[in-house]
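Exercise: predict the fold of this chain.
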Amino acid sequence: MRRAFIPVLTVVAVIFALWYGAAVALNTPWAYDQAKRAKVELSFSELVADTWSQKKPKLPAPHQVATEIWKTTVEKKITSKRSLIYHSGITLSSTMLGFVLGTVLGIGLAVGIVYNRVMDMSVMPWVIASQTIPILAIAPMIIVVLNAIGISGLLPKAIISMYLSFFPVVVGMVKGLRSPGAMQLDQMKTWSASSGQQFWKLRLPSSMPYLFASLKIAMAASLVGAIVGELPTGAVAGLGARLLAGSYYGQTIQIWSALIMAAALAACLVAIIGVIQRVTLKRMGMA
């Protein structure tokens, strides 16, 4: 068990070493400029210490980001507008709504594509083509159109999340529903099974591994959509708003802390889906 963690810890150590090194390289010009203005000479140790402690560095050091996360999570009340937990909760609400809508839409389209040749030939190409449009281009359009008809707040961000999350569900479910072999389908026909019985007894159970794999991707995509959806709205709450405020005022430490928080949130959500997957497949005898 301990040996299994050695590769993970090695990769983490390499990432941190590269991160600290990059912080020194990117923040050195500012440190030298300040030293030149003050007419002082910096030793190597002083230079490294300065690059790892600047208030507005180009690239904050890992310990600076960790300190910021600690201050904005543990040391702040959850209801505080400066709490990352508060902002994460705002983003999580639109993420989950968009994920649910995307999952329902994706499964519905997948069933139609598998059982209807017209949908297979007409809808599937449009589903694929929809993902070629950059989300940064379509997000403001969605916000403007929905605001014009009086819809604002949570729903526009959820729709953007849905736009990103439905695609992997469609692809995964189509693959899963078509995964039963010809012999399995022929055997169902010999039992005089109807199309509905084939779906519930064979196709749907066979699609579960594909569905859960696609749900993990969809959840991560939904979170990205929620964050992107907060940017054009000028939101004052949410991880996207936190990123936007940090970019306005050059608070790179705040930006990085929000990014790490978003990554941690995505990891937790995907891990929850993984737990549900293991339990579900075990109960179905597929684990």
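Check your answer against the key: The chain has a mean pLDDT of 87.
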